[in-house]
Amino acid sequence: MKIYSKKDLSNYDLSLTYDDISFVPTKISAIRSRVEAKTNTNFLDIDLGMPVVSSPMDSVTGIKMAQALNDLGCLGVLNRFDSSLENLLNGNVPHSGIRSVSIALNAPKDLISKLTEFAGVICIDTANAANKTVLQKCEEIKNNFNVKVMVGNVACGANLKDLVNAGADAVRIGIGGGSVCTTSIQTGIGIGQVSSLLDVYFARESEKLNIELIADGGIKSPGDVAKAIALGADAVMLGRMLAGTKETPGEVIKYADQLWKKYRGSSSFGVKMKNEFIEGEETMVPYKGTVKNVIDGISDGLRSAMSYMNCKSINELKQVNSFVILSNSSYLERLPKK
Ligand code: IMP
What we know:
The protein is of the alpha/beta class. The chain has a single domain (34-303), classed as TIM Barrel (Alpha-Beta Barrel). Helix content is 32%, strand content 18%. The chain has helices at residues 6-10, 63-71, 84-90, 109-115, 132-144, 160-165, 183-187, 193-207, 222-230, 269-272, 291-308, 314-318, 328-333; strands at 21-23, 41-43, 46-48, 52-54, 77-78, 100-103, 121-125, 148-154, 170-173, 212-216, 235-238, 253-255, 258-264, 282-286, 323-325. The strands form four sheets. The protein has an eight-stranded parallel β-sheet. A three-stranded antiparallel β-sheet has the order 12-13-14. β8, α6 and β9 (170-173) form a beta-alpha-beta unit. α9 (222-230) crosses α11 (291-308). The model has no long low-confidence stretch (mean pLDDT 97). The structure holds inosinic acid.
């Protein structure tokens, strides 16, 4: 069996995603219990308890979710689709705990000005960051406001330098990998999330660029969170893992003796409500209770991964360099059996 470094994985013939790889614990761990592993980190000048960021989707991050995540040491990016932003700007809800918001590409300057009074991070929420208008918008915001700017999304590192030159502080990595995303089917664009992330990571390394990396889309489990950080992500962005929790916008629905909540893509019909080109699905996910349950589960899994891999800190986890590529049968073998 070959042990692959990040560079080896990046150079692999085929594009890879989280289920294709696993950690290989090659070192004797000096960590006695997972409580010794610390997941705190600094992301975009914000001290976080864990490098977890929520997707700016209308079925994930409303005011309650952003505030709950802030209380849990994570970062919520408020969506731009529902009435959340309007309520904030009207003064109907307090700004406390709202540290990041998403905006549309055509958001006017006075809106951005109001948002930067309380939010330290603005996310230009588009499907493709490698686009002239996005770069111009990023530059305009950076020239006028003292705020961190997150752009997205990219599938590879080819244009990373252009994003940095436009002033971007962070980039969301992943096209076609989201769990309600139909971009790849509709357009044929997109590669596996592991390969996407590594391609951007090595572009940053080789060109010595200063930009933070967000692994966005396709993360299904605490193990995937650990893998994304070990592959060089500074933070993970979660949609489905947080969907269905109490704090997400929307009602709990009882159907077939089970409780559910809606989860839908930002480019789905339900969000657009017009007969436009659609690149996202709508679905129901089981109701999960409070988001604290989910965040605690991620924290436990992440710290356990760190103790197997002898990492006391997130920085040490980012240095991990021993992975394996799983055959299909070895992937299936690792799943619990009924
Ligand atoms: P998930 O965590 O796998 O559910 O992926 C969430 C990510 O999917 C988001 O952060 C976006 O990058 C992406 N996404 C959200 N809505 C859409 C859509 O309608 N089409 C394509 N991608 C989407």
